[in-house]
DNA sequence: TATGAATGAGAGTTCATTCAT
DNA sequence: GATGAATGAACTCTCATTCAT
């Protein structure tokens, strides 16, 4: 016989709070439970509400899943945005995106699984805000490559989309392994390896351009620092 | 004891034939239907049998899925084995594996979806014959890379597993796009692009090997200085 | 996600009421239907709910059966407890337990069948609350015998467990006959017969002890009554 | 996937032989498998035939079960018939029947389970040859009691049917315990105990027969008085 | 607004029995 | 006579969703 819950306390909370509670509960469940084992009633229980309440705030189960995933993704993008903008240098930029992604996966493999195995397979996934976010996020890599091409650091015939697919494809392969194997997953070395491989593949046959570019920037920085030093002294 | 009903119309086929019918029907359903919408009853109907018959030949639904997938995979491996053995040259070998995979996916996207989204996520997938086959198949790439390294064609510090993950990762990203987008999917150009990218990334540096390494360290220093400069200014 | 159909007509009852309805329905079905012909769908229909509702309150079919049987048993024990405590004399005590059991069976042969033929055969029956109840209930007989032995009314070499098995074994044989034969089943005479047989078998070869004991009690009561009569007069 | 048997050798056997094979296989299965876990296909396989063949010789599954049980029973009766006829003395006769039954159960608990839990519960069990055999077999006890009564060894007011029910009832209770508990089950001591208990209960009172009756009435009066005394006090 | 009892469609699976070969 | 592939009717159980209270 099922556990009958003791008569629950009706508490009227502001909607934002309720929504937050539900999403937190859902996220916890996804993180703990394996594939496809999340059940509305369990999420409700953990959030301290009943099933019906969830349906006041979310159109259906899938909507809840989407929103949880979106929030996670948004969080991840917001976290990295500031630093990402400030990065200089193609290698660093590539590395940062890749490393940051791996780190997020390591922290939240359950959510990753949710997205990879449950949300992405849905037939209308491309019409989803989650898809848009993901597209934007992974698009950063394309941007980096494109910029590198413009600046002559990368081969002019490189294909930014392919680079993105190779990077995130490789990440996914390793993630999948991590999810199943329960093997450890080291963002640091892995990010460096992937970045190196891509970077090397993107460099022009001989790469004097890059060296020059780096030297140029080095000079510029030096100049700025000197100026700064002068100002501070003054 | 069960009640029997009068109607009946049995057509008797040799088991191999029935099994083939069922597997064909299942394969068709997988190809047509979206994610998770394949149902035993539908497969049975299409195969011209009742549900119970399927259970004569397959232990359960999952067993049927596995076998269909295995057969497809085996077919794919057998087809390519002869030619694969005969190939000369790293680029050619890489390209052949990649191209052949893409071709198979283009022909049978439904089965690909089956494997990627339904069979692979299963918790015990690693103990599966399908996994073993897949591992062997993708391992070809590692073999090629390793051989290239031995022959001095590729950088001695390359990581064969990473190359495999990048190649099949990229393939998967495109496949996923193909599955949803219903966009076309051109094995020819795609295979060439992926191969080029990997191949280039694997070649030893034209200039002394440490050039890149030096450059990278220089780059890192620059970055630090730039950051410092930014912070100091602010 | 599931498709919903429009029709619906919900009647909302307090859980206790629903549970009671379901258990009543189940009990009716068990009483009417023969061996193993009770089906969840039928119980649901009779209780005026759909099958799924039953699973809100009972973990599975077996759980429902167990609970119905337990309730019946508990009822039976509660009913008899008060009187049982008050009984004096070995013969009376034996007779009461036996008679009461036969009466309960006569009233509810269907539930008896449920317990004997379906619940008891289960492999883990011994870990069941029903088993514990049954054990306690039939244990009353052992207690009576043991007490009789201590008081010297019964042979010192009697085996209480065997007495229990003979009593309830005989009851079961007759019950079985009743269940199939649809023959009548008269608790009164039967209880007397069984009790006599056991009682006789338990007496010491010659039984002066008992006579003495009874005489002693008779004297004691007489004395008390005399005293009482005196008090009342005063 | 199920094991497909290698193309079986069609061998034409005399019907008696086939029947014997099937019954032997069935008996083995019943002995090994737990409650309700015997499946026609398994019996067929063990007998070296296919399901269909069984239906040539047995009307249905139940018919097979019945015949196996009957054969076992018949065997048991035949085995004991000779000795049973020759026995002298009531105690010896009672003991022999009880002991022999316990021995048979100890040897074949699986078949006992089959009869107790599956065949006997069937609604039309009383119309069965198995029932008739069983009735005849257990009737031996009645005969012994009746004869003892005629010879004046047993009380003239004994009830032979009740003695039978107590004996076989007790046996069944112990059997049930044996089947579940996997506890050992010792026919020797147990038979002696049961026989003693019955025998003692059947002997005429050493003292005049009405002694017990008088005692009992005295006991009842005492009880009434005690109760009265208690109530009056309260 | 929150509740949570009730819904209901359907999924996978089992197995005694039949009958074309 | 023997085969064993095929049947098909049940059965238990799940769970997203609804809506009377």
Automatic annotation (TrEMBL), chains A, B, C, D:
Residues 39-58 bind DNA. InterPro entries: Homeodomain-like_sf (IPR009057), HTH-type_TetR-like_transc_reg (IPR050109), HTH_TetR (IPR001647), KstR2_TetR_C (IPR041490), Tet_transcr_reg_TetR-rel_C_sf (IPR036271). It holds the Pfam family TetR_C_24. Keywords: DNA-binding, Transcription, Transcription regulation. The keyword Oxidoreductase does not apply. GO terms for molecular function: DNA-binding transcription factor activity; transcription cis-regulatory region binding. Gene3D superfamilies: Homeodomain-like, Tetracycline Repressor, domain 2. It comes from the Bacteria. Residues 16-76 form the HTH tetR-type domain. PANTHER family: HTH-TYPE TRANSCRIPTIONAL REGULATOR BETI (PTHR30055:SF234), HTH-TYPE TRANSCRIPTIONAL REGULATOR RUTR (PTHR30055). This is TetR/AcrR family transcriptional regulator. It comes from Falsigemmobacter faecalis.
């Amino acid at each position: 016989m099922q556990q009958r819950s003791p008569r629950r306390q009706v508490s009227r909370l502001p909607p934002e709070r309720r929504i937050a509670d539900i999403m937190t509960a859902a996220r916890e469940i996804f993180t703990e439970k394996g594939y496809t084992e999340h059940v509305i009633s369990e999420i409700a229980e953990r959030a301290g509400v009943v099933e019906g309440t969830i349906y006041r705030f979310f159109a259906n189960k899938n909507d809840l899943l989407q929103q949880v995933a979106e929030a996670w993704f948004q969080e991840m993008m917001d976290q990295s945005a500031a630093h990402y903008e400030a990065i200089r240098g193609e290698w660093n930029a590539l590395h940062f995106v890749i490393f940051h992604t791996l780190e997020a996966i390591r922290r939240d493999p359950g959510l990753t699984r949710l997205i990879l195995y449950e949300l992405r397979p849905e037939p209308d996934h491309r019409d989803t805000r989650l898809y848009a976010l993901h597209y934007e996020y992974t698009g950063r890599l394309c941007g980096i490559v494109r910029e590198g091409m413009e600046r002559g650091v990368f081969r002019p015939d490189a294909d930014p989309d392919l680079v993105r697919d190779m990077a995130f494809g490789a990440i996914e392969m390793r993630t999948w392994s991590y999810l199943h194997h329960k093997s450890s997953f080291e963002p640091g070395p892995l990010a460096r390896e992937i970045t190196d491989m891509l970077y090397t593949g993107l460099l022009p046959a001989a790469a004097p351009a890059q060296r020059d570019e780096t030297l140029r920037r080095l000079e510029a920085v030096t100049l700025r620092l000197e100026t700064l030093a002068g100002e501070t002294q003054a």
